[in-house]
């Protein structure tokens, strides 16, 4: 790739990223809804279950906060795939696919836009959770948590792009979202530790990439984790790499149809 091609590719990534950011900025209902629902879970469930659950790691609301942030990253990243369906429906996707730029950079531009939106939401949740009483171990840990959000977001946006490249309707995508997100969320350590799980449920929890992202964030924010940090980071990095590759391939194939 020569210098001109590289410049055009980077311009494509930036343009699509900026388009996703402008779309996100204008959708105030999406921003409010993406914050209100997780905070509702944190305040109501954290208070209700916190009075009945005893954890060796400390208060339940502190334990639950990383899980709520992980839930936000999961939902917002997967929803990034909706923009592909919108763009296909209104003809914009066809226009950008005929541009003299590799489709991989087109997929990368949409992915970075979706991940940035997810990180903004996750960071806002982390800050607000601190104000309502969640205790974090350090500022450095919070900064490291943002890096974990980024890696998690890449993996789930890759999954979202893969699904959106194969599904033609909003209804079908929403149904698939529901089919995936709630089982992934409930079969993770977002709301309860693995030590309290029956043996049959521990298997899907340990196979779930969301578990490792949440455990890595839990280590960085409150200093405890049921999974060693290096193992969690290894799993989410591999997951992000595989899903981004699969998402780029699916997006490329979708443009041929």
Automatic annotation (TrEMBL):
ABC transmembrane type-2 domain mapped to chain residues: 29-254
Membrane-spanning segments: 31-51, 63-86, 107-133, 139-164, 176-194, 229-251
UniProt xrefs under InterPro entries: ABC2_TM, ABC2_TM_bact-type, ABC_2_transport, Nod_factor_ABC_transporter
Gene Ontology MF term list: ABC-type transporter activity
Major localisation: membrane
Key words of the record: Membrane, Transmembrane, Transmembrane helix
Short name of any one Pfam family annotated for the protein: ABC2_membrane
Protein name according to UniProt: ABC transporter permease
